[in-house]
Design goal:
It comes from Oryzias latipes (Japanese rice fish). It is built from 17 helices and 3 strands. By secondary structure, the protein is mostly helical. A 3-stranded antiparallel β-sheet has the order 1-2-3.
């Protein structure tokens, strides 16, 4: 009887409890529907964001799916690209350049280990080699296996002029050498209409002073009009920097391809050959050349004031930007006219080639 009363008293609760608890089938349906609901909410949110970006109002009656879909595909890619670009740091935009180590035989004091094999470097003298740019130590035999990942230390950069272009760019973590950027900015701010720009040389003592300033103070060097009123001093300092590079802006490896491209007569084949030659340049060299050619094109746009055409600039910058690798004097002399043509083509087709 007690059991009967118990069952009578508890059975309604059990019934209510069973009615409140979901069945396994309904639970599985809800589990499948939940991601779909979240996805729908996310898409609706994206539509609202895109509508705002496009200047559209999305009220209770939203635009039809047929009208919205092509806009959504186009705008989503554009908006995501803009968001990604806005979140990038300046260092993310800096082009990455491979840099080979500059190994020199070194006498180590005290115990030292090879950075490649992690073994002790035995001997009393000339135990191994040391990179003069980043300071890493290697066995002589291990140095040939070292990756091109040298990260120069500013403490090891003793001067700016005559320093390898890629080494300087890596050390300062910039896209181009500071000398190129600073000089071109100064020239464009006050010298584009100066007659004989780049053709007329500045006073040699002042040019040497600018060079010493960059070697000593780097980016803090003052080349403003207050320091050097004659713009030809700045143009001469820039040309001197480019001439002093151990490896020219148009590197020795790519030099033959540029000369062969200049010899072609068919316009389309010539431009294609130039593109292939540009692809051979180290990244830091290509970025520097691109920036310089864009500047020289702006110089030619002021030709009626400065009297400097693309042909004239080619004569000035041909031997400055490229040098014949291991050629005899006669062969190098024959290449001079093609060097001029190379620079001329790069200036006139700057927007197409870069």
């Amino acid at each position: 009887m007690f059991l009967g009363h118990f069952s009578t008293w508890f059975s309604p609760d059990l019934g209510n409890c069973s009615s409140r608890m979901p069945s396994r089938e309904s639970y599985n349906v809800q589990k499948k529907e939940k991601p779909l609901v979240e996805k729908a909410k996310q898409e609706a949110s994206q539509e609202d964001i895109l509508a705002t970006a496009l200047g559209m109002r999305m009220g209770p009656q939203k635009t039809s799916a047929t009208f919205w879909q092509p806009i959504k595909i186009l705008a989503c890619s554009q908006l995501s690209s803009l968001v990604r670009r806005a979140t990038l740091k300046d260092s993310d935009w800096t082009p990455k350049s491979e840099k080979v180590h500059n190994f020199k035989v070194h006498n180590f004091r005290g115990p030292h280990w090879c950075e490649h094999c992690a073994r002790f470097m035995w001997g009393l003298m000339a135990q191994g080699v040391k990179c003069t740019d980043c300071g890493l130590n290697f066995h002589k035999e291990c140095s040939a296996l070292a990756a091109n990942d040298c990260k120069p230390n500013l403490r090891n950069i003793r001067k700016v002029y005559s320093c390898d272009l890629t080494t300087l760019v890596k050390a300062y973590n910039t896209a181009r050498p500071m000398v190129v950027d600073m000089c071109i900015r100064e020239i464009e701010s006050r010298g584009l209409k100066s007659e004989g720009l780049y053709r007329i040389s500045g006073f040699s003592d002042s040019v040497e002073e600018v060079k010493t300033g960059f070697d000593k103070d780097g980016e803090k060097t003052d080349i403003s009009v207050k320091a050097y009123e004659d713009i030809n001093i700045i143009t001469s300092a820039l040309k001197l920097y480019l001439r002093d590079l151990p490896v020219p802006v148009i590197s020795y490896d790519s030099y033959p391809r540029f000369i062969e491209a200049a010899k072609l007569t068919d316009p389309e084949k010539k431009l294609e050959a130039f593109r292939e030659a540009l692809a051979l340049l180290p990244l830091s060299h290509r970025e520097t050349l691109k920036y310089l050619m864009a500047h020289l094109r702006r110089v030619t746009q002021n030709e009626k004031f400065n009297l400097m055409s693309a042909e004239n600039l080619g004569i000035v910058f041909g031997p400055t930007l490229m040098r014949a690798p291991n050629q005899d004097a006669m062969a190098a002399l024959n290449d001079v006219r093609y060097q001029r043509q190379v620079v001329e083509v790069l200036i006139k087709n700057e927007e197409v080639l870069f």
